[in-house]
Amino acid sequence: MSEFEFDNIPNDTAAEKHDKLMKVDKLPLLALRGLCAFPGMLLNFDVERDISTSALDAAGDNGRRVFLITQRDIMNESPKPEDLYKIGTICQVKQMLKIPGGGIKALVEGICRARLISAHLENGFYVAEAEEIPEPVAKRTAKLEALMRKTVGMYDSYAQLTNGVPRESVFPLFGMTDPGRIADYIAQHMFLKHEYKQPVLEAIAPKKRLEIICDILAREIEVRSVEQEIEENIQNRMAGQQREHFLREQLHAIQSELGEERGGDDDASSYRRKIAKLRVPEEVTTKLNKEVDRLEKQHGSSQEGSVITTYLDLCLELPWNKETTERRDVVAARKILDADHFGLDKVKDRIIEFLAVKQLKPDHKGTIICLLGPPGVGKTSVAISVARALNRKLSRIALGGVHDEAEIRGHRKTYVGAMPGRIIEAVNRAGTRNPLLLLDEIDKLGSDYRGDPSAALLEALDPEQNSTFRDHYLELPFDLSDTMFITTANSSDTIPRPLLDRMELIEMSSYTDVEKMEIAKRHLLPKQKKKHGLTAKQLKISDDALLELISGWTRESGVRQTERELASLCRKTAAKIARDEAKSVSVTPKNLAEYLGPRKYMPESSAADGEVGVVRGLAWTQVGGTTLDVEVNVLPGKGMLKLTGNLGETMKESAEAAVSYIRSRAEFLRIPTDFYLTKDLHIHFPGGGVEKDGPSAGITMAIAVISALSGAPVRPNIAMTGEISIRGRIMRIGGLREKTMAALRAGAKTVIIPAENESDLEEIDQTVRAALTFVPVKNLDDAIDVALDFSNVAPIEKTAPVETPKVEVVPPQPFPEPPRVRQ
Length: 823
Known about the structure:
Blueprint: E1 4-5, H1 14-21, E2 23-32, E3 42-47, H2 50-58, E4 65-70, E5 87-98, E6 104-122, E7 125-133, E8 137-138, H3 142-161, H4 179-189, H5 194-202, H6 206-258, H7 264-277, H8 282-296, H9 303-317, H10 330-340, H11 345-360, E9 368-372, H12 379-390, E10 394-398, H13 406-409, H14 422-430, E11 436-440, H15 453-460, E12 469-470, E13 477-478, E14 484-489, H16 497-500, E15 503-507, H17 513-531, E16 539-541, H18 543-553, H19 560-578, E17 585-587, H20 592-596, E18 614-621, E19 624-636, E20 641-644, H21 649-664, H22 675-678, E21 679-684, H23 698-710, E22 718-720, E23 723-724, E24 730-731, H24 736-745, E25 750-754, H25 766-771, E26 773-777, H26 780-787
Parallel strand pairs: 2-4, 9-14, 9-15, 10-11, 11-14, 16-17, 18-22, 20-21, 22-25, 25-26
Antiparallel strand pairs: 1-8, 2-7, 3-6, 4-5, 5-6, 6-7, 12-13, 18-19, 19-21, 23-24
């Protein structure tokens, strides 16, 4: 007879009886991480994975039953069937509760063990074929009885040694007579990893289960005993340290009575002398003296004393009264700005205006300046130059990627490792109370559950409030009113509106090729020659070669790539000189490719003369202006409008507005009036890998559609930009300076712009204005006359009205009587 026997199954062997009880179910499969479910036990757990929540939802269709099985690796976010153990538990879902923010809290009760046969993905979760494993009934023997008592006693000892296990959990065991249930109950309530619980679940025989649990309990009791011994040793050491502290305090009292002061009091006296010398508000003095009083009460090696010392050192290091003498000579400041940067007159004029006001009104606080422009145009270097021109110390704060509000305002001293925020840290680093703080990349601030850094900047950047700026670490008011703030950004779209309202925007546009050449000659090339140890005679680059380098090897708004290419030229020159191949190198447009390799950017090709349905538009990007060709095909169809080229919603709406206007003016535009019933239009923007959006391509799409429908060719060397309304009005657009530079690079001669942008031509570079002819237009009819050639397009012939033939009116005649038919 086997170790256990089955009841109520007559006329079969034990193995045959076991097989007959096997039952295969199809149930939703839910993978557990770090948990094991046992038959007859309640289990409470949280579900967050979508596949798991779907399985729980599907359990309602299966009698609220679900198959719980543990995954081998708890770090696996998407376990497959092969990543799971083979034995799990079929459970009854007792309760499900939706958790705010997503997820489900589930309460299940184990029914029986089951073996995973197979699983497949269905409706977003795994459906398992599970073979139920019936619970064997063990034969009660003296050996089994002794094992049960031993197991219960060991669990009682384990509960006494473990803080998290309540003693009440032991009481139900005294009333249990089933050895398998005793083993499952203990495994469920022990603090064990799933690797130790799973063997208990996989053991079918009750005796085997008890043996495994006994081994686990023996190991855990030994570990807990060692932990308890270690904890007692720690408590003894702490008691010894407290006794030492008490004795030292008694010694301090005795020394005070004898007039023998300890060395620690010298630190407190030193702090008090430094505080007395500070010319700060009374609130600051009172706060610092209180901290010194607290320091005196601390033990010399206490952690709290170290925190107070660090805090006092920082507060006393701050430049409460130190400041640099500001240069207010506008002529000298202008010379410094001109020497450091070419062009940028708008920025320079604004700084000179600030200095001029300072001369007339020394207590003027000024405004916060935000330098806005594409990468590489010199925003950061301009701020450095401004600090030099004003004779102010510069301190830079990189804000890109900052998500924590405490990065700006600091952490409170109660936190371990607390420190002041970046603003106070930057002022302390500058060493003066009137530095120039450069807040770099302010448009790349983030926010999350830790707070919004942009909101923390509102106080610092408000001249009306920053005279009492409070850092969370300092907990003291610090005057930032004499601090000059300059921020930089690539785009104002991502800057929060309240923060943007506190700043004065100064746009720094893209450089023209001529400006880039001058910057390279005056600044970049001498810098790279010095960096690579070359003299002026060893490397010579002609102006034509510089222009060729800028147009053929770089495509940018600023000059960073230009500087990298010049550095490459310097390296190639240094290598030639080091190999004694040449004593000097002269770079011209003809030999430029020998040093830099093949040309990276070919000149933008202009549309073929007289091409129909292809128009060149102009667009603005964060790295400068670019051209945007529009192609239109007219196909036989039923009036469908198809738009391709990775377009945004605004561009799609502009295309619909353009077609609406064309339909209303079809006869005037020499277009068949029924084109929207017999033709399909396909508007395409080449370069589908780049997302395109904005309203300024409206005029371009309208002209291209009119050209394709009428057959009128587009005039050569023409580009355009403007937003269109359904009435044909051409409305204002932005980024005109960058767009006109792109038109010049593309070889355009004439640029059509909205009449509302005519005033912006004053800000366009003189080189661009001299090379292009600008045609301001108020409506699309004006643009059509400039852009399209209708000389060879015949007007639409009007269909003559069909004459209605005259019909002679005949008086009605009586119907003849029908002939009679004999029946």
